[in-house]
Amino acid sequence: MKLLNAAILLLLLTACGGQGEWEDDNRNAEDEEAFILSYLDDWEESLESGSFSYMEPYYILNNHGYHNERRYHQQLVSSRTIERVAAVEETVPEVNEYEEERIRMTITYEIEEGGAVTEETRTRFFYLGEDDGEPVIEAIGRRSDEDE
């Protein structure tokens, strides 16, 4: 099962690298959106506490996506930066020609850093999968023109 998940993730990450054309998909994504919103709530709490352990149930541990987000989390905690979701502007399910699916979300964040609070609108691409019948995040893509 882990080998199959690793193979799927490898294919998924290849797609994350810009290969394939993504189009809006008219499928119902309410469950995925609810899962991602729960993730974003816990992300904020994990930054406030400085502990990535809040996030571990959302991932298949020790895969590429997990390690990327853990490193990003450490960077934010080290700089004492907290991202809070101010508003979800748009949630769009997408599919590519290989029938791979992702959720594109445009999110306005309140960024608290060094006592100052700014707002930034960012686009995230959530690549979701399942592990033992439960939803998990396989990877999170970011627009290359957005600073992190």
Q: What would you note in describing this structure?
A:
This protein has one domain (26-142): Nuclear Transport Factor 2, Chain: A (Roll), CATH 3.10.450.50. The chain has helices spanning 2-16, 30-49, 64-78, and strands at 22-24, 81-96, 101-113, 116-131, 134-142. A 5-stranded antiparallel sheet has the order 1-2-3-4-5, sandwiched between helices. The model is unreliable at 1-16 (pLDDT under 50). A hairpin with a 4-residue loop joins β2 (81-96) and β3 (101-113). It is globular. The chain has 148 residues and is α+β, with helices and mostly antiparallel strands. The chain has 3 helices and 5 strands, in the order αβααββββ.
Describe the structure concisely for a colleague.
With 148 residues, the chain is an alpha+beta fold.
List the SSEs and their pairings.
Blueprint: H1 2-16, E1 22-24, H2 30-49, H3 64-78, E2 81-96, E3 101-113, E4 116-131, E5 134-142
Antiparallel strand pairs: 1-2, 2-3, 3-4, 4-5
What attributes does this structure have?
disordered N terminus, globular, 34% helix, 5-stranded antiparallel β-sheet, 5 strands, alpha+beta, Nuclear Transport Factor 2, Chain: A
**Under CATH, the topology is which?**
Nuclear Transport Factor 2, Chain: A
How would you write the strand order of the largest sheet? 1-2-3-4-5
Radius of gyration, whole Å: 15 Å
Element order: H for helix, E for strand = HEHHEEEE
Unreliable segments of 5+ consecutive residues: 1-16
Total tally of structural domains? 1
Counting DSSP H or I runs of 4 or more residues, the number of helices is 3
The end-to-end distance, rounded to whole angstroms, is: 33 Å
- In the CATH hierarchy, what is the architecture at level 2? Roll
Give the beta-strand count: 5
- The CATH class label is Alpha Beta
Q: What amount of the residues lies in strands?
A: 35-45%
**What structural class is derived from the secondary structure elements?**
alpha+beta
The rough form would be described as globular
The helix fraction, in percent, is 25-40%
Quick check: average pLDDT? 87
Main β sheet profile: 5 strands, antiparallel
